[in-house]
Specification:
This is UPF0102 protein EJG51_010040. This protein has helices at about 1-15, 15-35, 75-80, 85-100; strands spanning about 40-45, 50-60, 60-70, 105-115, 120. It is of the alpha+beta class.
Length: about 130
């Protein structure tokens, strides 16, 4: 057991600059959403081929949040990076997550885009 703990800590330190930027973005988004009244249910939910950055509670609704952080709009910006393929992977991960929940809550998919120091929160971006 101690070996896994050691390995987990070691892997957490071995993050690429891009991963660290993503981690920063998730922290900023989490603080922003908490300030808006949402509460954290889970972060970094992983399943085969998919991930959800943040799962939040907004009243009775469960909110699956994709966080995108970009330094500039040079390559289309943060919002443009949420492609149809990424949306399909988000829906897949949400369906996997929801398999363990009864009764099913109301759900929505949000995107928090962080670009040029600004945070933009788009609610209900995917209709599944």
């Amino acid at each position: 057991m101690a070996e896994q703990s050691w390995l987990g800590k070691r892997l957490a330190r071995i993050r690429t600059p891009r991963q660290r930027t993503g981690d920063e973005g998730e922290e900023q988004a989490l603080a922003f959403l908490r300030q808006a009244g949402l509460s954290l249910v889970q972060r970094s939910f992983l399943c085969k081929g998919s991930e959800i950055d943040l799962i939040m509670q907004d009243g009775a609704a469960l909110v699956f949040v994709e966080v995108r952080k970009r330094a500039s709009a040079q390559f289309g910006g943060a919002l443009a990076s949420v492609t149809p393929a990424k949306q399909r992977r988000m829906v897949h991960a949400a369906l996997v997550y929801l398999q363990k929940i009864k009764p099913l809550p109301a759900c929505r998919f949000d995107v928090v885009a962080i670009q040029d120091g600004r945070i933009e929160w788009l609610k209900n971006v995917i209709t599944a």
